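Late entry, written up from scratch paper. The run itself happened at the end of the previous shift, but nothing got recorded in the book at the time, so transcribing now.
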Amino acid sequence: MTAEPHIVLERWSGPWPDDDPDAAFKAEVADYTRLDPTVTLQGLSARTGIPVGALARYVLAKWATAGSGGLMELGPQTLHRLWEPIAAAEQAGTDTVRLAAYEQLKGMLSWLRVPLEHPEVY
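Output as recorded:
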């Protein structure tokens, strides 16, 4: 059996350049790493009897797989259909076409929300 991984929960505040394509993500990492998640994990562990390390592994695994889980829920065909207006607007490169793509995407998402907003329909 291989050894379990050990990680250091470190705080991080950058730096990163203004034109960094991952700047928004890095800013979010900097914000969240100010917090101490072990306080929450210790409380949850005390309440549930689940070891802190198992809870930390669960939280990390669940967050790390959320993108693929979302894709599985949405489905690749729907994702491609939702992406088409965005891709076309970016190719055209004008604000007018981007606004039209927004309206098209808004319409597509509104029909996906119908069962959530109006369950009586089903």
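The mean pLDDT is 93.
(Scratch paper discarded after transcription.)
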